[in-house]
Amino acid sequence: MSPARIAATARRVLLQLRHDPRTVALLLVVPCVLLALLSWVFDDSPQTFDRIGAPLLGIFPFTVMFLVTSVATLRERSSGTLERLLSMPMGRLDLQLGYALAFGGLAVVQAGAATGLAVGLLGLDVAGSVWALLLVAVLNAVLGTAIGLFTSAFARTEFQAVQFLPAVILPQFLLCGLFVPRGQMQPVLGAVSDVLPLSYAVDAMGQVTGHTGLTGDFLRDVAVTAGCVLAALALGAATLRRRTP
Fold it and tell me: Fewest CB atoms within 10 Å of the CB: 34, 39, 43, 67?
């Protein structure tokens, strides 16, 4: 693993994104628009927005980063870019970490914009630290990036990469505890929810909005989410292919 190669990969990805304003708009603008729309929908019920706004502050970036990362990685594979890069003295983990660094930087900007909008303009009530809320939002976005990098190895076309969205993201969205508390789920569904990374990210958001200080449960949820990010990056490096068959 070479820090110089990781940095060079991240720089190349960011330069490519600079010339793709539609993707940048999707990354930075769409989560903010969705949060604003959600706020207007529950304009007459601010308590509902306070309850689901914080979890969705993490879920929206998670979903968008997953989609953009998986499609972008597959495009580089199908165009032969990955094959050329891996023919040089560059390891798979270098590539994965370079992509994660580039999209992670965008995730910080994305999460900062969404958090600032939700708390500053939309009036999201947060009992705990806004910085803790921002940390979890960034972790969610990076988690989406890591899972997108991993799942892109199993797609042959960009359309197939998009199809992973309902297969990978929607089950986590339904079982993360946003609609029904995880403790009240049917036992099998509860057990499945316990192994899904998004469940812990949503729980961490709940800890921030419901407690004034950092709780032990919050630290546990953040640690689990960060561990899932590292595991997804390692699996992505192990399954990274040079080209699409």
Answer: 43
Per-residue confidence at 86, pLDDT binned at 50, 70, 90?
Answer: low
pLDDT in tens, 89-126: 666 777 778 878 888 888 888 888 888 888 888 888 87
Mark out the alpha helices in 79-167 (DSSP H runs): 81-86, 92-116, 130-151, 158-164
Token reading at 236: 């992505």
Residue 145 DSSP one-character state: H
pLDDT tens-digit map of 121-145:
888 887 777 888 888 888 888 888 8
d(CA 159, CA 161): 5
Q: What is the pTM of this model?
A: 0.84
Burial of 9 (0-12, 13-18, 19+ CB in 10 A): buried
Q: Measured between alpha carbons, how far is 171 from 192 in angstroms, rounded to an integer?
A: 10
Query: What's the CA gap between 203 and 55, in Å, rounded?
Result: 8
In the numeric block, the tokens 């993490």 are attached to: 58
pLDDT per residue as tens digits for the range 189-216:
989 999 999 999 888 888 888 787 788 8
In sign, the C-alpha dihedral spanning 219, 197, 180, 187 is negative
Question: Taking the C-alpha atoms of 64, 66, 69 and 71 in order, what is their torsion angle to the nearest 10 degrees?
Answer: -90
Closest CA to 151 of 76, 233, 227: 233
91 half-sphere exposure, CB direction, 13 A CA radius? 11
